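Report of the visiting student (M.T.), summer placement. My assignment was to run the structure pipeline on a short list of targets and document each run. The first record concerns alpha-L-rhamnosidase.
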Amino acid sequence: MKRYVLILLLPFFLFAFDQKPTALRVGDLRIEGRVNPEGIDARQPRFSWQLTSEQRKLQQTVYQILVASSEEKLAVNEGDLWDSGKVNADQSIQNPYQGETLKSRTEAFWKVKIWTNQGESDWSMPQHFSMGQLYAVDWKGRWIGLDRAFAWDTETQFSRLSARYFRKEFTPKREIKRAKVYIIGLGLYELYLNGQKVGDQVLAPAPTDYTQGVKYNTFDVTALLKSGKNAIGTILGNGRYYTMRQAYKPYKIKTFGYPKLLLNLVLTYADGSTEWITTDDSWRATADGPIRTNNEYDGEEYDATKELPGWSTAGFNDQKWLKAEFVQEPGGAYEAQMNENMKVMETVKPVSIKPLKTGGYVLDMGQNLAGWVRLKVQGKRGDRIKLRFAETLQENGELFVRNLRDAKVTDVYTLKGGGTETWEPTFVYHGFRYVEITGFPGVPKLENFEGRVVYDDIPTIGTFTSSNPTLNQIFKNAYWGIRSNYKGMPVDCPQRNERQPWLGDRSTGAYGESFVFDNSRLYAKWLDDIQQAQKADGSIPDVAPAFWRYYSDNVTWPGTYLMVANMLYRQFGDTESIRKHYPSMQKWMAYMAAQYTKDGLITKDKYGDWCVPPESKELIHAKGPALQTDGVLLASATYVGLLDLMQQFAQLLQKTEEARTYEQQAVAMKKAFNEKFFQASTGQYSNNTVTANLLPLMYGIVPEKQQSQVFTSIVNKIVKEQKSHISTGVIGTQWLMRGLAQHGRPDLAYTLATNRDYPSWGYMVENSATTIWELWNGNTANPEMNSANHVMLLGDLLIWYYEHIAGIKAQTPGFKVIEMKPDFPEGLTEVDASYRSGYGLIQSTWKKEKGRLNWSIQVPGNAQAQVYIPARSVDEIKENGKKVTALEGVKLVKKEGNRVVLNVSSGTYRFEVNQ
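After the run finished, the structure tokens were exported:
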């Protein structure tokens, strides 16, 4: 048997509550994965695995998957749920389950064997998943809560509502084989069993429009149970369910009610019988605990003198507690949460602490982040410490908070006294670099504080570094900004009184982010949020979930729905998201065409080319018409691009007639577009902004013979008028870097990426930014809108980093075939990048020195790459000192311009060429 490694991935849909990687070894076979995904509700799981080998040219030819209802059956190769048999296929990602119908709470154990051109594998180590409660009728018990405020609460625009505590004691009747909890805790929950927190998630579950769908989490709690009396306890926080803006601007802000709980604990005994512990009015409840108020925008107040020692253990005296009350259900369908919960992903140390003249201290974390501070303190009972958060400082060293609008962003901790106390909040997060500390007993020191970085528990799958420090810092800023804004949905900012999942911020952003993070489950979930927010007539909002009622019927924001689905297909090979959402996409496309077509074009636009660099650095938006792009042009060009996507989706789904219809519609709109906006004599569109010319060029609207002329207009505008600086907003920047690189000016793209004066990403770096700003002039603009932690202005920058600088691009969906075609721009001498695709690790490391290019690449098993090497002929290229034409796994494809194109099979290569 040939030696190679088989790495087993989670099926695409699965969500593991314990997501710590595990590595097991049997002989020469290593299996890696995430353990115990519990309570999923996908009826047709998709299975993936990875292959690597010490030898080149590894290709899968056959696979066999076994899925069994018990470990014992799987051990003897009995796939009673599904035996795929030998499948002649080279696909090792997104292989769908095709076995027996999976029922509620089914336990499933699976493994895979593969056959390759290098031999046959052993069976992989067993992996496990379980089904959730697939139907509403599977849920037992009733919703409980306390639907009112208490004497210490206030309900205003700045509502202060304390956390709710619920508990229940129970005694198992027999020996327990397995125990699972299914929980829907709205708005947020913390779950305890016998005094121990269940899971390491925070701020769970993921937010939704609770009238449309509510997420449940599942936990295997067998190890936490004991013989005799047990106790289960849950704390409910407010989250997005009960917001700080409760009953404030009801025409704009959607509210849902008071926190509530539905919980099922299913005990499976050794004799096969089951018992259910469910929420009902036998549970006890109180709101008079230590969490006195909590909301996402204002902060959390915790009074340690009100703590309830032992409240989630058996024997606690709850006689003064209230009887839990039956409450109305939220209205949305019960859905297993397939995307990852949030988690404390990193702990960082502060870099300085300084006293303020006005009293108190300012703590500097050295990095803008999203999360909270963990506090360690010793003092007297009743001492109150206030922590107030901000991204930047005023000149006098005090916090700058005007850009936070009316968010109070303050945590308060009241000491119980009697020794060292450690505390961190439970149901809030903040976007911050600086913390104002008041009321601290004595002199605070750095060791009293830690920053807790909180975002979705997703792996980092991409790395990038280069010889240019500006590129490196921008990448780092993007990394911190992206993860700051992953909060069970992609939000626009983590700090002010907004934090909304705006669609327009992620149309291209999601694509760039996918090179850095495995955001596949997050964005698959977000597509569901968008679908649930769609109106019956087809309208899609600008914010989804629609916490804000913004249905403005533009194209550029809702069009993100299609673009994210396309990203999931391109980057992860996910066809299911397209299949699932295609009807809703069709409905929206038809709605927009019916409502807003005039003279063959789409007339409705809301936001323009949002946030172009304005003529004055104090402005938020440009005022002069020369800087603004026509809204009909923006809407119609984008709609043409979406018609092309719909055509591709229809072809993928084998809807031939529908594909032809979309193609015809695109042809007709391109004609109308050019008749209205194109000036053939000058090679310009509309008023000749970069965006006005760039969109038709990138969406294939420009007649072929005029493409060079239009591109020249773009270059002249950037170089001559803008002095080689950015002049685009959110819409134009989505195509800017790729547009320049693909049409022959990679040098200009590199200039834009490395500028350090205004306006540029490097200008943010030059002004000490550690994340990406909302505005190009974020340090000088009106503070009504200048978040220091946004991602929308990244546009296609990260895509350019990977596809054009590193040379890592999916030529076919999921990176089965990789295009490796770096631009190798002048002035950049080194790049080291990696990306872990579904097929495995892709690496591209190149260095230019003394007239020689050294380029090392890694192509994962069962994949191949088209490699574009700058050389006059194939004879100039060496691989580890040998001619490439003599190597196994390397094949000459063609000569294209100044590059030699090689087809490279899986393996590691080191190419050398004189330049």
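The radius of gyration is 28 Å. The domain at 344-456 is CATH 2.60.120.260 (Jelly Rolls). I thank the supervising group for their guidance throughout the placement.
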